[in-house]
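Colleagues,

Please find the record for the two-part complex below.
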Amino acid sequence: MAPFPVQLPTIFGHWGALLIYGVIGFAFGYVLEISGFGNSKKLAAQFYFKDLTVLKVMFGAIIVAMVLIFGATAVGLLDYNLLWVNPTYLWPGILGGLIMGFGFIVGGFCPGTSLVAMATGKLDGIFFVLGVLFGIFLFGETVDNFAIFWNSSYMGRFTLPELFGLPTGVVVLGVVLMALFMFWGAEKLEQKFGGADAKAAPRWRYFAAAAVALGGVVLIVLGQPTVEDRWTRLEPEKGQLLADRAVQIHPGELLSIIEDTSIKVIMLDVRDEVDYNIFHILDAQHIPLSEIDSKVADLHFEPANAVFVLMSNDETAATEAWKVLVAEAVPNVYILEGGINNWIATFGDDNLTKRFNAGAGNDELCYIFDSAIGDRYAASEPNPHAYELEFTPKVKLELKRGPTSGGCG
Amino acid sequence: MTTLTPTETKSSFGQTLKRVLTSRKEKAYINPYLGGILLGLVLFGAFFFTGNGLGASGGLNRILVYVEDLIAPGHTDRVPYLITMAGGSKNALDNWVVFMTFGTIIGGFVAGVLNGRFKVETNRGPQVPVKVRWVMAFIGGSLMGYGARMARGCTSGQALSGGAVLSVGSWAFMFAVFGGAYLLAYSLRKFWN
């Protein structure tokens, strides 16, 4: 598994982790200040084409960070699944953005820069920060009136490579070239409206631009790791868990964790639709093996106490799905031991188990059903108190590494 | 033996403080491209080690909710939006983004002092009275705060962080911010020029 990001509280403790965030914040504030972001006049000049520092710093930061991030994921140092990618709520985001744009030109700051302005004694910064607090207060008090809109147009973790259907490297290079073009345009505008001297700009910026663009090209060549690549890297460690049968849980354990209110059990039935319709466990979601990778982003949004249990008729398809989810760094993934066949053998009444199909192949349903009534069998929802089953508990909640909230907390 | 009256102590302390904070010669801001590269490194470092990007408005949000929870704990327990941060025995400040926000303030302060830019002043357009600028800053801040919560992140948490990891929503948001500001910029040109 890619070693980064790390689970900070495990290594540094609760306060140590928070301290590290404080140090990152310090660097953030420091760089904002030395870039001139504590000065509202400099920020507002952006919108009169006199001084496009805002654009240069922001897009400069985005392309540098982006190339480094995807470089680190390409070589397997960093796991993109574990990074907080702001989920897309399209229209609330756009409307909020427009309101913020108005606020930017009226007030002369954005929230981060106003903190720096306040810290360096700028009174307009202090009034702005007070305004931000008031605006946030107002939002908290009014959001319930338009909660439907606020939660609308949700697209989950939706990225530009998915939107355009292009490889990540190509999108990265595209963004870099767009930014460089904007920098070129920004310098022209500054010369026209701000009277900037073209010769005063340092020559090293050409080398920096070339380096970032080259980084984009390298990313296209390297490509991002596929599920297979990720699994190959993990196989020595995680393959052992499969061989030791450390992740195949007994039907009795599944039943007991379903009843455990401190755990959120998410059952993923990876069989084909026919088998699913014939019989499935109550609350098991149907997601065919071929589509499991499209589910990964949603699974990462589940809370830290979520346990994922995969099931097929036996274990073959469930094991393949397990490899995909583990490769994609989904925590707490288990396989139903013996699959649905074993579940039926354990909890099915005589009526259900009487017609055994000895000729069923590997990972096929080995009972013959008269009707396809899904989860309306008694065995779909067994009474946990009616069975005394012996099993070795295997489910251990591991700490989630990826952040469950981010952006602005 | 001379005894200092309280006012004398205060003013001399105030003067010392002022001397310490503003003694350095004011330096120029760094080149914006260098600023971009440095900020990019900070942003990358944040993602690389923590999995989170940068944030600012979320920290202010939690500080505000913490105060609300002190004044009216019953209220924070009833409003769904506030419960997630400060419901029951939850401490709204016990969150990474709050510490990042404190760090940002200290970082900005240190940079300002070291570069001789710590100065109690109001930056404004030449035609705008100080008090009008303050009112504008407050109104602008209110819009920013409201918009940032609606968009689930501000320029740092959405545009910068989400932009670098290629979130579709963050890019749409970013263009909306610039669009909104340019839309209104012409009408407000007298305030800034």
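Chain B touches chain A through 129 residues (CB under 8 Å).

Comments are welcome before we finalize the supplementary table.
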